[in-house]
Hints:
8-stranded mixed sheet; mainly beta
Amino acid sequence: MTHSIGTLSFRPLTKLACLFIAAVFGVSTAAADSLSGTALIRERVALPPGVVFEAVIEDVARAGAPATVLGRTVIENAGQSPFDFTIDYTASDLDPRGMYALRASVRHDGQLLFMTDTITPVLQGNGPENVEVILKMVARPAAGAMPSLGAHGLRLPATFRGTLPCADCEGIRHHLDLWPAQYYHLRRDWLGGTDGTLRRDEIGRWYADPERGAIVLHGASDMPLFWQVTGPDTLRQMDMAGAPIMSELDYTLTGDGSLDPTPLQAMFLLGQMTYRVDAALFEECLSGVRYPVAQEGDYPALERAYLDAAPTPGGPLKVHVEGGLDLRPAMEGPDRMSLVVDRFIKVIPGEACAPRVSTASLTDTYWRIDTMLGDAVAPMENRREPHVVLQSGPDSRFRATVGCNQMIGRYTANGAALAFDGAASTRMACPPPLDALERRLRDVLDRTVEMRLEGQTLDLIDGAGAPLARLSAVYLR
């Protein structure tokens, strides 16, 4: 029988029981078995040629001791995510006392780019029911990678810096870290005020505002923060209502396309804590980002309270702490941003973080084009990612691009009916394959007569009921 857990499909959920039966009745268990799965990268980045994917099954039962490798697979020139893999192992090597976990990574020229950051139990029957093997970015891809330009052309992940005008201080120094997964870290220092330099740090989520050509930060601030995107590496502050600031003063943050995360301090944080094999993880409620918990500061009090109140061993428990985020050594690869607990406040049994996913609206949503006419669509090197925006209002205008010219026109929508009219465009000469992709987009828009909007997915459909394109709402509030 084949069992499926999340993105993994494998047979040996009862291997340890089989070993026991084999030992009692003398049945041979030397035959090799295999574990198949898929590893995914959620960030929309193109990997450079020649990346190496590795997946390993390890026995991690002994805390503090090196993990014992049960099986390994290495894929040279692995291409792009997702990565399908199979790991062969010998069933007789399974130890009934063992705790087996899957670890995966992607490297380029020896540099670790992506890796799993949570324990993924395998080959045993007591693991979680919805396991996902997700690879998290630990380093920016080396030269030769293909950065995609996301919302309004921003090159992400990246750090933006600048000192902005201040009415009653010398200036407000900003350090803003943005990730394409739509979360951010922000540090602000009010310089030379009457009480000296004041500091405020926060984390949160951002979304794109197509009408303003801006991104909006939602975090611990009392009001959302609006930033107009004026270039791939440039943001200009807007006022609290989201209007441009009419001033000759410099309200600009700039970056160079690289990410240099800043440590954050003195924040009150709510999140879901899990604890396995002497390692704690904290999923911050507002951003949804997971951080390892450093075993320092007031961590012992947090761990004791978790162990006393957790509903199930290793299960999630909502906790409230005061602390910060800083780089700490990882078991493998570069240092990782980790939660440092300055003060444990309380545990909150029976509560969970509120869901963050919004239901997409047809209008004023940034619709990324994922497929057209049955083929996957991917962003090209240093080009805008293919997308469509349908603006609300009496004019019912739309704009669309595949990364070269911008098409502008009108649309009509009535129930499930949708049609695009008179798409004019700029006349830039598009290099291959953008020229063919642009013709395909124009064909899709001309043939669309119907739509199907479900959750965060929009399908464009022709007169015969056949799908023309699939779009995803990726920059939602």
